[in-house]
User: Which sequence fits this backbone?
């Protein structure tokens, strides 16, 4: 079954054909003047242009044909030829019942695709930081949206586990514990089973190593050598690398779990690296690699470029690979294994040049054929309250966990006093994740915003906790009705404008979902959730549903409550937000 509005659009398209006009697509929009109708069709203007006629005449012809069918409660023409439609009570009532029977009505899709997504990007041996937060939030929500619209999605955590940072960490471990067997080329025995470092050690080691490398050119050179040796699969370094991987991955998984961020595959740059040799022979056969001062590169600039696009650095002069190389090999691997129609990458907008280089190389070398789409989905930054990049008090980068903790402290204050530990902490965490995610998804994806835990956790206004509070209240109303043995099976009565406004807004869901999917931004969905919840809360505040004496009205309100509740659950789930039992 197609969505309500799409059915109406198809109907009007048919009428227009009957009037003798050809039209590709009929789009009905929410009316900008609700006093004239629920929805509006503005296509008479374009038809008038195409057929050299007066738009009012065309609008008239269409309206006359529809009028005789009695399909709408009202249909009229305003201004230059805007057709306004008011839906009949009976069709709105039917729609509520249809939704009650199938809340997935607005999610159908005739062209499901296979989409490979890359929105993890956490770096091994380094703490997840705020930069990884938006990627996880937007990426996870886009995955869930795509899945709910019937697409097949495979998401990869794509750990940063093969580049300079890991070389730096290994170097610093060597400086601290030079006698560890991993660094001894003559070591013949079995390497220890236990990791020489804990995750806490790693969190401390990386910032120190990175600071040293910035100041000390010799240290930096040693890190380069260490990285090259690792990429050369030195036996001892591989053993140490495996330890670091397992310690660090456990912690990274824990943080992604806390954030309701899920991946189907847990690969990393090192897995892509396995395909570098195979890919390089292919590139050699195409004679596409050039030598440049000892390095091997692929030129990706085009004559029509209006900005400088540097060549892709495939192999550095010491033989090690770059961030671009593993990403290119990643495309090679993903096409080979998953055959995706599209590959989506989420990363900070500052990585756009990197992806431009990689995508160009993938196309130029025909690693990617025309039938696969590569999409970079950049996002803006989250800043501190002062609008500047987020820092802790001592000036270092704020970890993602520290940031969630700040939100959790605020959310904890909002929970009922009767909820005690351990439930209290659990609920506070759910609220914190909801607060942070919802606030993150409100602005259009490319827009920067400021982190404000007090505002984000407010129980009033456009916040995650407000939506959770309202949704839990709907659930508890439904539960109370059930406990009081009030049966609700059918929607029959639209009481007044408050009720009608809710239904009219429900009609808009399909277009919101598609708009969000096409823009790869969740802002339309966050807005929709807020608005529909507000509309429902008006109904809730103005009526006493459980004690209502008019039984068919009571039943109708309960059905509407259930539809809005189910719909909220579905949309919150798309945003990656969990609903607690109580709060
Ligand atoms: N690890 C990278 C970072 O922390 C992000 C990875 C994004 N994905 C990719 N395929 N390059 O900046």
Assistant:
């Amino acid at each position: 079954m197609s969505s309500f509005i799409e059915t109406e659009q198809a109907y009007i398209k048919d009428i227009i054909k009957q009037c003798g006009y050809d039209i590709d697509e009929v789009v009905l929009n929410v009316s900008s003047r609700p006093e004239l109708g629920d929805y509006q069709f503005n296509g008479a203007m374009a038809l008038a242009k195409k057929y050299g006629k007066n738009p009012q005449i065309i609008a008239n012809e269409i309206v006359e044909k529809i009028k005789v069918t009695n399909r709408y409660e009202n249909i009229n023409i305003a201004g230059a030829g805007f057709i306004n439609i008011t839906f009949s009570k009976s069709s709105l009532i039917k729609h509520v019942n249809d939704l009650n029977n199938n809340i997935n009505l607005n999610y159908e899709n005739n062209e499901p695709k296979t989409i490979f997504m890359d929105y993890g990007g956490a770096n091994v041996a380094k703490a997840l930081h705020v930069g990884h937060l938006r990627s996880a939030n937007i990426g996870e929500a886009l995955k869930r949206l795509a899945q709910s619209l019937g697409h097949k999605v495979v998401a990869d955590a794509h750990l940063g586990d093969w580049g300079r940072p890991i070389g730096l960490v290994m170097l610093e471990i060597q400086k601290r514990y030079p006698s560890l067997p991993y660094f001894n080329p003559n070591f013949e025995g079995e390497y220890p089973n236990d990791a020489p470092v804990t995750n806490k050690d790693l969190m401390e080691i990386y910032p120190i190593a990175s600071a040293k490398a910035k100041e000390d050119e010799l240290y930096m050179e040693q890190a380069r050598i260490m990285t090259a040796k690792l990429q050369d699969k030195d036996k001892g370094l591989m053993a140490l690398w495996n330890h670091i991987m397992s310690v660090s991955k456990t912690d990274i998984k824990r943080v992604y779990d806390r954030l309701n961020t899920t991946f189907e595959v847990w690969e990393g740059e090192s897995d892509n690296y396995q395909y570098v040799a195979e890919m390089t022979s292919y590139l050699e056969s195409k004679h596409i690699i050039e030598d440049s001062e000892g390095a091997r590169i692929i030129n990706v600039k085009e004559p029509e470029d209006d900005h400088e696009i540097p060549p892709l650095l495939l192999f550095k002069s010491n033989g090690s690979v770059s961030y671009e190389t593993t990403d290119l090999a990643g495309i090679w691997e993903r096409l080979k294994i998953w055959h995706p129609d599209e590959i989506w990458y989420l990363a900070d907008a500052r990585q756009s040049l990197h992806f431009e280089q990689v995508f160009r190389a993938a196309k130029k070398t025909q690693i990617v054929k025309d039938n696969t789409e590569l999409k970079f989905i950049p996002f803006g930054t989250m800043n501190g309250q002062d609008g500047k990049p987020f820092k802790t008090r001592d000036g270092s980068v704020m970890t993602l966990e520290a940031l969630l903790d700040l939100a959790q402290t605020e959310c904890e204050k909002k929970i009922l006093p009767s909820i005690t530990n351990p439930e209290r902490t659990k609920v506070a965490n759910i609220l914190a994740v909801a607060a942070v995610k919802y606030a993150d998804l409100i602005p259009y994806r490319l827009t920067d915003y400021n982190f404000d835990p007090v505002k984000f956790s407010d129980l009033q206004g456009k916040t995650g906790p407000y939506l959770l509070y309202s949704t839990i209240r709907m659930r508890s109303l439904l539960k109370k009705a059930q406990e009081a043995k009030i049966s609700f099976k059918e929607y029959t009565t639209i009481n007044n404008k408050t009720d009608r406004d809710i239904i009219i807004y429900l009609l808009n869901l399909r277009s919101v979902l598609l708009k969000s999917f096409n823009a790869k931004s969740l802002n339309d969905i966050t807005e929709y959730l807020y608005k529909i919840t507000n509309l429902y809360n008006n109904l809730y505040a103005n009526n006493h549903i459980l004690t209502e004496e008019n039984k068919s009205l009571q039943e109708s309100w309960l059905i509407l409550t259930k539809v809005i509740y189910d719909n909220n659950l579905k949309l919150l789930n798309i945003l990656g937000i969990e609903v607690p039992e109580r709060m």
User: Anything to note?
Assistant: The longest strand covers residues 342-348. The two ends are 37 Å apart (CA to CA). Residues 164-258 form one domain. The chain has a mean pLDDT of 96.
